[in-house]
Design a protein that fits this description.
Layout (H helix, E strand, L loop, with lengths): L2 E5 L4 E5 H5 L1 H14 L9 E4 L7 H9 L3 H14 L2
Antiparallel strand pairs: 1-2, 2-3
Length: 84
Amino acid sequence: MYAALASQKNYCSVYLMNIYGIPELMEWFEAGYRASGKRMDIGKACVRFKSLDDLPLELVGEAIARTSVAEYIELYESSRRKTG
């Protein structure tokens, strides 16, 4: 899974696996989120929100675009090799 949306009982989530696997990208994302002025509710790879107005959509799109599919596959395969 590269990115996904989920609907929970009290909120929705967008899962951005690339920011979970690349610490520098997570730092960039969190700084951009804070700069957006929107309330940040982030887990390891999920961003929780109640409505689309609560989510900085341009930032989410840019975060997804920052990692190519080939880079993400390499990141995934590298993590699998480490777990043996």
